[in-house]
């Protein structure tokens, strides 16, 4: 296959790990770093000083802090900046790309201020002729597993079949398997909303509520994801796939999950401010909970787990009281997409 000039925008854990996937196939991969010390560390020591610090990076990963130059010089731009900063980065580079530039979003979340999905931000900032052709990567894949070349599988979504096929082939390796789908909304919602449910699962574990409670919470959480997805036009079957159930199971049960870890600490009584202080890592679910909660209210969807997480994070609701409210709700049938 051809080897187009490819850059990763964002040198956090996931961006760094994806850079190593592409570096196994391409002559060179550019990794744009927000922090100058990260770029310097990668170029001079072959280690990211903030993220996945113990792993040596391939020599063909070249780090830079020149965002505009990176956008101009690369045919494929893989966006791995936190969701809440995506709009600003796209706005900064939109005049530096061409109509042929392929954007791939590997971030997960809902913009808190606007209740907007990443695909909508791409279309809004880049315009329909470019933004509507963006591809989206999601699935159960931790950065640490990926950089260690442990087997994983993800899905690539997009509305342009030719571009989806290109990106599917670009990322596929013998340890990083890629599938394809045209359900952009479903893939995005699965990847974003599972972080909120993972926070809830962590809170459940932090409270010491047991395996049965966690299993019930994850199952009902998947129901919330499915109902919002169906309301917004996603395909129901997407949520039983890699970017739905697969990603939810991984993020809600593993000790490597940032979102679950934050939830555990909340369940044990720590404040959100104390948990976030001094951390380079971002638990996307913390901000995504704002956008999802607001979107649920706008759509008149009852999403009690999401509401409980939002209450704990931002409204002073204690975890024990949140559990009590969930358990004492009115009884109803299990399978019902319009209510819970």
Explain this structure:
With 340 residues, the protein is an alpha/beta fold. The protein folds into 2 domains: 6-182, Rossmann fold (3-Layer(aba) Sandwich); 186-327, N-(1-d-carboxylethyl)-l-norvaline Dehydrogenase, domain 2. The protein is 51% helix and 12% strand. It contains 16 helices and 10 strands. It has helices at 13-23, 36-45, 67-73, 83-93, 118-126, 128-131, 143-147, 161-171, 184-206, 211-231, 242-253, 258-267, 272-276, 284-299, 304-314, 319-327; strands at residues 6-9, 29-32, 61-64, 76-79, 102-105, 110-111, 116-117, 135-138, 152-158, 176-181. The strands form 2 sheets. It has an 8-stranded mixed beta sheet, with helices on both faces. A two-stranded antiparallel sheet has the order 6-7. Helix 9 crosses helix 14. The longest helix has 23 residues, at 184-206. The radius of gyration is 20 Å and the shape is globular.
Supply Rg. Answer: 20 Å
Just give the CATH class of the largest domain: Alpha Beta
Task: Output the strand order for the largest sheet.
Answer: 3-2-1-4-5-8-9-10
Q: Sheet with the most strands? A: 8 strands, mixed
The termini sit apart by 48 Å
Number of helices: 16
Query: In total, how many domains does the architecture comprise?
Result: 2
CATH superfamily assignment of the largest domain? NAD(P)-binding Rossmann-like Domain
Output the CATH topology of the largest domain: Rossmann fold
Overall geometry comes to globular
Low-confidence runs: none
Query: What is the level-2 CATH architecture name of the largest domain?
Result: 3-Layer(aba) Sandwich
DSSP E strands, number: 10
Helix content: 40-55%
């Amino acid at each position: 296959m051809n080897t187009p000039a490819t850059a990763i925008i964002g040198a956090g854990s996931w961006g760094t790990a994806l850079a190593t996937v592409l570096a196994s196939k391409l002559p060179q991969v550019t990794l744009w770093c927000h922090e100058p010390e990260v770029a310097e560390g990668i170029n001079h020591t072959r280690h990211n000083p903030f993220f996945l610090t113990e792993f040596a990076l391939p020599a063909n990963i070249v780090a830079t802090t020149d965002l505009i130059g990176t956008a101009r010089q690369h045919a494929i731009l893989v966006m791995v900046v936190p969701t809440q900063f995506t709009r600003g980065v796209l706005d900064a580079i939109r005049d530096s790309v061409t109509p042929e530039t392929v954007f791939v979003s590997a971030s997960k979340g809902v913009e808190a201020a606007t209740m907007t999905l990443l695909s909508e931000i791409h279309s809004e900032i880049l315009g329909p002729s470019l933004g509507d052709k963006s591809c989206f990567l999601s699935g159960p894949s931790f950065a640490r597993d990926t950089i260690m070349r442990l087997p994983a599988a993800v899905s690539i979504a997009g509305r342009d079949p030719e571009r989806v096929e290109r990106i599917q082939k670009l990322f596929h390796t013998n340890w990083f398997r890629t599938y394809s789908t045209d359900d952009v909304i479903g893939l995005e919602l699965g990847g974003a909303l599972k972080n909120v449910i993972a926070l809830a699962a962590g809170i459940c574990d932090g409270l010491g509520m047991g395996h049965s409670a966690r299993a019930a919470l994850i199952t009902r959480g998947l129901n919330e994801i499915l109902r919002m997805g169906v309301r917004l036009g996603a395909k129901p079957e997407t949520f039983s796939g890699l970017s739905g159930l697969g990603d939810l199971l991984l993020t809600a049960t593993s000790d490597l999950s940032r979102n679950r870890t934050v939830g555990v600490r909340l369940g044990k009584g720590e404040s959100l401010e104390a948990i976030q202080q001094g951390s380079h890592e971002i638990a996307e679910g913390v901000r995504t909970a704002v956008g999802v909660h607001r979107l649920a209210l706008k759509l008149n969807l009852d999403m009690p787990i999401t509401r409980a997480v939002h209450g704990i994070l931002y409204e002073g609701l204690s975890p024990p009281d949140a559990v009590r409210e969930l358990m004492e709700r009115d009884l109803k049938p299990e399978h019902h997409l319009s209510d819970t």
